[in-house]
Design goal:
The protein has helices at about 5-15, 20-30, 40-50, 55-65, 70-85, 85-95, 100-110, 120-130, 135-150, 155-170, 175-190, 195-215, 220-235. By secondary structure, it is mainly alpha-helical. It has a domain at about 1-85: Alpha Horseshoe (Serine Threonine Protein Phosphatase 5, Tetratricopeptide repeat).
Length: about 240
């Protein structure tokens, strides 16, 4: 398969949440991954990440960097920030360049896990505002993760506002992002004592995890999250 056609196919599969098929396709087409394009290596790395295969995701990124694919550097930064919850990794990059929404998003993800997350709210909001009109997936994730940052400082109303905005921006795809988001919407409504709204969010989360699991049937992480979402919804609905 020609490189352009392969990248088009991997992009379609990735956007449909078929991460296992992306891995099969790229690794099947390139037994020697050093022959793959930057774009296909990026899709491969993120597909491994979405299946909680963090070591494989990072190794693909490191290999891409060694081949001179600078774009893969941002993936390494994101994975190191997300998995190790080390905000300094993102801060070091952002101190020189704040133009990449992927790194800005990584910063917000790490900020919400810090001992004093409130100190990062102003900087995080600056990034959210900067990319508020972008349809880049990392820009939308930024809005989503701003909700988590507000939740971390015990402001469920502000968190819900961010999550509702992000949910609309995700559109009809991105099942895993939308499913996880609705789980946190459920939590926020429970904290506010609104069981009816919490039940609706839990039902939607379960439905979306079903769609995510159907799109990527060998994804064990998605299956576990679907089962958890089902249990939460059924307990609320009874």
């Amino acid at each position: 398969m020609e490189e352009d056609l392969l990248f088009k196919k991997t992009t379609e599969l990735y956007n449909a949440g078929k991460f296992g098929e992306v891995i099969e396709l790229v690794r099947g087409a390139y037994p020697d991954l050093t022959k793959a394009s930057s774009g296909n290596l990026e899709k491969l790395a993120w597909s491994h990440y979405r299946r909680n295969e963090f070591g494989l995701a990072r190794s693909v990124a490191i290999m891409g960097i060694s081949l001179g694919y600078e774009d893969l550097k941002s993936i390494q930064v994101q994975i190191d920030t997300y998995v190790n919850k080390d905000i300094k990794v993102a801060q070091d990059v952002l101190s020189e360049d704040e133009s990449d929404p992927r790194i800005c998003n990584a910063f917000i993800v790490a900020a919400r896990n810090e001992e004093n997350p409130k100190q990062y709210v102003t900087q995080a909001l600056k990034y959210v505002q900067k990319f508020k009109n972008s349809d880049n997936i990392s820009a939308i994730n930024m809005q989503n993760n701003m909700g988590h940052l507000y939740s971390a400082i015990d402001d469920p109303e502000a968190a819900l506002d961010c999550w509702n905005r992000a949910y609309k921006r995700y559109g009809n795809g991105n099942f895993h992002h939308r499913a996880a988001l609705q789980y946190w919407v459920y939590n926020a409504y429970m904290k506010l004592g609104d069981k009816d709204s919490a039940t609706l969010a839990a039902e939607l989360s379960y439905s979306l995890w079903q769609q995510a699991a159907e799109a990527d049937p060998s994804n064990e992480a998605f299956k576990k999250k679907m089962a958890n979402a089902k249990s939460i919804y059924e307990n609320l609905a009874t």
